């Protein structure tokens, strides 16, 4: 919601079919929201029926655990996320991060920055182990090196997929895959027993992205 001009107004006029993931990140977590009032705006968004998920950073969940129950009272599920924009933690560290996220929320989400392909294998293996342990987890490796993890993460148990809806591909972040192509890749790599909960967007009749980021 940090990227929308009037996110609450957009929510009021939203007539799409997909449930919305609402998140409101400050610059430390890759967003543009100011700290003051950031969570208040996110809480206001969580009152809307179309908002099914709220994405909150692990660091915020740790520091303000009390607010999680307030969000739950609005009948939303919590995605607790951790973003590492510089590296990919070792497997045991990344496993511990997912465990911590799962301890606070319904879905544990991690995004890491790979330096090489072995880092992407670390992410995928941790997702597989988390899934086998009964944890609902989601994860991507950012950048061009990690682009393939967006398409095959579901094979390893990732519950969420993300795709941009922008018409201008020059505005895509490195490694992002357009929705239509991602959908085709996911379908072509789907195997028995895997479950991708939702590619968080649709191609047809979209009024706003299903992941809504709040403004400054």
TrEMBL record:
GO MF: 3-dehydroquinate dehydratase activity
UniProt keyword Glycoprotein, yes or no: no
Catalytic activity: 3-dehydroquinate = 3-dehydroshikimate + H2O
Keywords of this entry: Lyase, Schiff base
Gene3D superfamilies in the cross-refs: Aldolase class I
NAD listed as a keyword: no
E.C. no: 4.2.1.10
GO biological process: 3,4-dihydroxybenzoate biosynthetic process
Classification via PANTHER family: 3-DEHYDROQUINATE DEHYDRATASE
Protein name: 3-dehydroquinate dehydratase
């Amino acid at each position: 919601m940090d990227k929308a001009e009037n996110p609450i107004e957009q929510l009021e006029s939203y007539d799409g079919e997909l449930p919305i993931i609402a998140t409101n990140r400050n610059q430390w977590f890759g967003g543009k929201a100011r700290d003051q009032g950031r969570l208040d705006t996110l809480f206001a968004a969580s009152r809307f029926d179309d908002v099914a998920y709220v994405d909150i950073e692990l660091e915020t969940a740790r520091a303000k655990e009390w607010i999680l129950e307030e969000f739950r009272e609005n009948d939303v599920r919590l995605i607790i996320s951790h973003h590492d924009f510089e590296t990919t933690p070792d497997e045991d560290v990344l496993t511990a991060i997912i465990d911590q996220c799962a301890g606070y929320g319904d879905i544990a989400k991690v995004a890491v920055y790979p330096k090489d392909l072995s880092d992407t294998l670390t992410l995928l293996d941790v997702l597989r182990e988390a899934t086998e342990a009964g944890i609902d987890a989601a994860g991507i490796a950012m950048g061009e090196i990690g682009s393939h993890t967006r398409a095959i993460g579901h094979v390893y148990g990732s519950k969420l997929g993300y795709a941009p809806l922008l018409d201008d591909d020059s505005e895509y972040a490195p490694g992002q895959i357009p929705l239509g192509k991602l959908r085709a890749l996911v379908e072509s790599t789907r195997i028995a027993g895997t479950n991708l909960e939702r590619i968080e967007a649709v191609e047809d009749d979209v009024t706003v992205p299903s992941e809504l980021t709040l403004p400054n």
